[in-house]
Amino acid sequence: PGERSATDPSRAVTLGVMGGGQLGRMFVHAAQALGYRTAVLDPDATSPAGLVSHAHVHTAYLDADGLARLADAVDAITTEFENVPAEALRRLAERRPVAPGGDAVAVCQDRAAEKAHFTASGVPCAPYALIETEAQLAAVPDALLPGILKTARLGYDGKGQVRVADRAALAAAWAELGRVPCVLEQRLALAAEVSVIVARGADGTVVHFPPQGNLHRDGILAVTTVPAPDVSPAQAAEATACAGRIAASLGYVGVLCVEFFVLADGALVANEMAPRPHNSGHYSIDACDASQFELQVRAMAGLPLVAPRLHSPCVMLNLLGDLWFDAVGRERTPDWAGVLALPGAHLHLYGKAEARRGRKMGHLTITAASAEAARATALQAAAQLG
Ligand code: ADP
Ligand code: MG
Question: PANTHER family from the entry (predicted)?
């Protein structure tokens, strides 16, 4: 396979992805639409992406035999989930082109390295302190409280975070998190949250989606609205330029999402970034003329990157496992027929075997001719889903 070029999908070229979650599944769908074969490495035999891929290697991410089998099977490799070890990507890169690269992914996997990279790229982030030792804990400036203590590594969907009001709560929270390396961030008053997705090619071409407006519940993304409400053209341009600079200074290849906080005075502050397609970009499948997953395929395969165009205002609702339970905790089936009877409803279910509270089971994108109409229909859908 190494002799073939990934730019010719008509010749049974295979693209590989590390991780088999819903992002991998939507990547696989986009790759297959362009004529590629796909291979997924994921330890779970029933992973959402593994179920729809041509090949599925079920081993741990660092398993030497699994990595060798994936490399043998594919022409280029990407990753779909933040916590695939950067080391696995570095090892794969000895055999095949890997995008994004292990070094860029490693920066995104460590909140301290990530914030240092934002600062080095001239992008502001929330005031913070690194806490790795008792001495650093004691030296935290008062100005960072009340704050949010976050583990430097392995957090997602609000996990690995504790809100702390004062020093006593901070010390208790650090103990609760096992005294692993953490960052303490000042808790900011957020006027809004937006994210920007860029795709960067190996030749340095950068294209972007319009900023998305995001609403989180309990630390988990709940609703994405595009165009982002209450974001001025100047703010949109600034967020996009920041994301482009962050990608360029990482030498990044592939799709990258940067999350921003919008403060009361309109200032933008970078929160975190994800080295992959992002939940807040799922709407692009139905509301744009190229999805974030197609751009990931194009970037990793060296195909042209063309600026995607939003053709319909939209609202995306995340479908969490909670919807599969009624008020007294009995299992139920959400009213799909009711939702699909709504105009512009695009339902995506990830094929996960078991619904659990807080687990991302699918998403619903409502497209419409106007932002108002999309919002009105999304409200109806939310009411129908209960
Ligand atoms: P995760 O990796 O779980 O997405 P984030 O750092 O993005 O973690 O935090 C999840 C959510 O918590 C954010 O989207 C935001 O709503 C809230 N949050 C995080 N950090 C801060 C902060 N410094 N000030 C105010 N709210 C915050
Ligand atoms: Mg986040």
Answer: PHOSPHORIBOSYLAMINOIMIDAZOLE CARBOXYLASE, PURINE BIOSYNTHESIS PROTEIN 6/7, PUR6/7
Determine if ligand 1 sits within 6 Å of the CB of residue 259: yes
Give how far Cα 158 sits from Cα of 180, 334, 343, 358, 359, Å: 17, 25, 33, 11, 12
Among 144, 148, 153, 194, say which to mutate for ligand 1: greatest number of ligand atoms within 8 Å of CB: 148
Average pLDDT, the chain: 96
Across residues 92-118, what is the average pLDDT?
A: 97
Q: Where are the domains of the chain?
A: 9-98, 127-186, 190-385
Model confidence band, residue 155 (pLDDT cutoffs 50, 70, 90): confident
Count Cα atoms within 13 angstroms, Cβ side, for 180.
15
Which of 101, 64, 70, 97 is closest to 86 using CA atoms?
101
The arithmetic mean of pLDDT across residues 301-324, rounded, is: 97
CATH architecture, domain 127-186 = 2-Layer Sandwich (3.30)
Nearest protein CA to atom 17 of ligand 1, as residue: 219
185 CB under 6 A from ligand 1?
A: yes
The topology under which CATH files domain 190-385 is D-amino Acid Aminotransferase; Chain A, domain 1 (3.30.470)
The answer to whether the CB of 126 falls within 8 A of the CB of 150 is: no
Atom of ligand 1 nearest to the CA of 187: 24
- CB of 82 closer than 6 A to ligand 1? no
Decide if domain 9-98 falls under CATH 3.40.50.12780: no
**Nearest atom of ligand 1 to the alpha carbon of 147:** 23
Q: pTM for the complete prediction?
A: 0.95
- In this model, does residue 1 exceed pLDDT 50? no
Cβ neighbourhood burial of 90 (10 Å; 0-12, 13-18, 19+): middle
ipTM value greater than 0.95: yes
Residue with tokens 């009711």: 338
Measured in residues, the chain has a length of: 386
The rounded percent of the chain whose pLDDT value lies above 90 is 93
- DSSP output for 348-377: EE---SS--TT-EEEEEEEE-SSHHHHHHH
Radius of gyration of the chain (CA): 21
Q: Identify which of 157, 161, 195 to mutate to test ligand 1's pocket (most ligand atoms within 8 A of the CB).
A: 161
